[in-house]
Specification:
Helix content: 40-55%
Number of domains: 1
InterPro entries: Acyl_Trfase/lysoPLipase (IPR016035), DUF6363 (IPR045943), NTE (IPR050301), PNPLA_dom (IPR002641), YjjU-like (IPR037483)
CATH superfamily: Cytosolic phospholipase A2 catalytic domain
GO biological process, one term: lipid catabolic process
Keywords: Hydrolase, Lipid degradation, Lipid metabolism
CATH architecture: 3-Layer(aba) Sandwich
Mean pLDDT: 98
GO molecular function: hydrolase activity
Pfam family, one: DUF6363
Order of helices and strands: EHEHHHHHEEHEEHEHHEH
Shape: globular
Radius of gyration: 18 Å
């Protein structure tokens, strides 16, 4: 049986997923297949490299560092992102909080990042190999509209994978997974709506009509994916984990007490549910 994990994105809400990942590592649980979206993919790299606590350390140590995140980064013509791209995706993993590329490359399973093709608006599923120390694929999957420039890979411009496939369970099943652990970053009962900010963002990309359409239709697609996920749960093909609550937790949350609390939610849930998770994959 081929086992898989799907990690939703959600910027700093994905610290919940980091808690799940760290507990799974301590409990010696590693699937055959990992697919992630946006921050879910970026953090999952440290799961595959078996580095317990690395993601939490980065957020706690660098959340307030202007080199990591700050509006001044958007004014830099060589950066044009809320995040300091070179600092976040190169300096940190290659120097400050080293990413274990060697152990990552020893992972025997498949590892994919969801990205959105700027021209077609369709999702693409790019492998992350750990061979590119500029981590361009991770930049692409995390490239939030407005707050990131397009990320070019082999002549094609990409943006955040969550625009086109927020919860890529269908891709995981198409890739041969029999059962999935799906880690979401919103609480039970959450449904997405199209905000006025999203509508304004779509206007910014009016010269990229498919990308603009993704922005305007994302909420409906997301809610349909949740309905599909409910069916997969009932069919015994998916085991879903969710935070207890993310209400009042911002995408770029500053309160480190809230950040640590959400991390602990994922960590503790995983320890409490590990027998149920193992039984699910055995059944």
């Amino acid at each position: 049986m081929k086992t898989g994990i799907v990690f939703e994105g959600g910027a700093f809400r994905s610290i919940y997923s980091c808690g799940v990942m760290d507990a799974l590592l301590e409990l010696d649980f590693m699937p055959d297949y990992i697919i992630g979206v946006s921050a879910g993919a970026a953090y999952a790299a440290s799961y595959a490299s078996k580095q317990v606590g690395r993601n939490l350390k980065i957020i706690m140590d660098y959340r307030d560092d202007k080199r990591y995140m700050g509006l001044l980064n958007m004014l830099d013509p060589g950066n044009r992102s809320l995040y300091g791209l070179d600092f976040a995706y190169e300096t940190i993993p290659n120097e400050l909080v080293p990413f274990d590329y060697d152990t990552f490359r020893e992972y025997k399973g498949e590892f994919y990042c969801v990205v959105t093709n700027v021209e077609t608006g369709k999702p693409e599923y790019l492998p992350y190999t750990g061979l590119d120390k500029t981590n361009t694929v991770l930049k692409a999957t995390c490239a939030l509209p407005v707050f990131f420039p397009y990320i070019n890979i082999n002549g094609t411009n990409y943006m955040d994978g969550g625009l086109s496939d927020s919860i890529p369970v269908e891709r995981a099943l198409a890739d041969g997974c029999d059962k999935l652990l799906v880690v979401l970053t919103r609480e039970p009962g959450y449904t997405k709506t199209t905000s006025s900010v999203t509508k304004q963002a779509a206007k910014i990309y009016k010269n990229k009509p498919e990308l603009a359409r993704d922005l305007l239709t994302r909420a409906d697609k997301y809610n349909r994916q949740l309905e599909r996920l409910d069916r997969l749960e009932r069919e015994g093909k998916a085991y879903v984990m969710r935070p207890v609550s993310t209400k009042g937790f911002k995408r770029t949350e500053k309160d480190k007490t809230k950040i640590l609390s959400l991390y602990n939610d994922g960590y503790n849930q995983t320890y409490n549910q590990i027998e149920a998770i193992r039984d699910f994959f055995k059944a």
